[in-house]
Amino acid sequence: MSTSMPVDTPKPPPKLELDEFIATALSSTPADLHPFFESFSKLYTRKLWHQLTLKLIEFFDHPLSKPFVVDVFERFVRDFEAKLNQLKLVEMGSKVSKEIDNPQTQLAFLTSLLSRIDAEKSQEAYVLLLANIAHTKLVFGDLEGTKTDMDKAWKTLDQLEGVDTSVNASYYKVAADYYKAKAEYAPYYKHSLLYLACVDVSTDLTPEERLLRAHDLGISAFLGDTIYNFGELLMHPILDALDNTQHDWIKKLLFTFNEGNIGKFEALAPLFPQEPILEENYPFLRQKICLMALIESVFKRNANDRTMSFQTIAEETRLPIDEVEHLIMKALSLKLIRGSLDQVDQKAQITWVQPRVLSRTQIGDLASRLGVWIDKLATVEQRMAPEISVAA
């Protein structure tokens, strides 16, 4: 059942009595926060809205302010919110909402703020707030409402250029978390990497968040039925979060898949029970590593040596020969390779293999092949040089 709430005409905020508000705040907050309220009073009186915004953000980030942020926003900020940069207003409102324990009250707070944002004039603020509302609904268990708000946000975001990274980050974060809740691995993988591209992994995520994100990305890479190129993930610093943890074998397994190394895969397979979902999907993972082994086998060959017998493929993928044809057809259907099958002679002619990010070992192999090719060119040049001289 959706928890979507009707957006009513916003009620006007209670009239601000500045002196009374400041006096109450000074008597009820820790002394460390008093300079903030003194600044609020001066900046409000002088109508320095930009400077007041910066001071408010500093206040909302202060660890001692948490019990007071909702009251400050509702009693103080609402009085002049129309005069503020709307994106900054939404950023502040989003921070404040996180201090509201009750998800339904939090949703009502954000929905009320949404009704006061002009979706046409302040599109980035509108998208950011919709993404935060969607995330609140997700926590509340309302997947349908989450998807509805995600789609609304994307409709606007897709038309914008030069978007603030915080807006993109909020959208991609809720989208990734939504697809995680739905166990849709490939969309989770895509949106999670896009989210990480919008944040500073070392400062914007806690160590616990980095570890969880790296773990979930690894699992989604293994189980995504369209993910056969792990390159972007393998190069990402998020994977360092797995080092020296109980999940460090997941990082090893990612590189094992990228190399198409069936021997290493079999050596790591006894660890799969630590991740029951990998254990449950072992047949799929086995087929996936065989496909990766096929890609690697083709990649290692020279362009003029890519007609492979079923027997050779069976040996390199450790499959029975009667399963090779199905494997090749699967690779063709997934567009991992291009080519043709000769079922009579039991051969596959491969004309193209999907580009991918290479490990250091693979780069070394490629460099060696390039060196051989250069040597061949030099030999041809030496043979042709006398004939060119005579012709001249």
UniProtKB/TrEMBL annotation:
Highest taxon listed in the record's lineage: Eukaryota
Protein name: Uncharacterized protein
